[in-house]
Amino acid sequence: MKQFVRLSLVLLFSACLSCNPTIGTFEKNITIPDHTWKSSFKPEITFEIEDTGSRYNLYLVIRHMDAYRYNNIWVNVEMQFPGDTVRSQSLDLRLATDDRGWLGSGMDDVFEHRVLITKEPQYLQRKGIYRFRLEHLMREDPLEYVMNVGIRVEKEL
To answer: 20 to 30 A Cα–Cα from 58, which one of 4, 19, 87, 117?
Structure first.
């Protein structure tokens, strides 16, 4: 009986892996200390790209509490590519509307947003380490009720 249970678990685990639609996905989130994002706290996220022939969707991920006071967040995303090329862009990310409320997915009083930071999938043309630095540009400093920020990179299948 124990062998049957073990075999069943192995087969179930294998089936889950073979059906995983997020293969080629990287996501890293940084916890904001005390859920209060100070402008001086600029989380850095690095990841390595080996496949330069694929296109990638780049997302900013943000988790916040329902008590977050704004329907948007201004974020500066600094991207450093292999070879020291640096590009920076300021983004006004819509998190809520008056008629629909929070646009992200939520459970209890925590909401998560994955917002595309590029208009279309991108070729990351150089193999190597990519570095992202995130900085909030909101007038309120520190910015309360922000739990995590991060970057998600999805290979287009």
So the answer is: 19
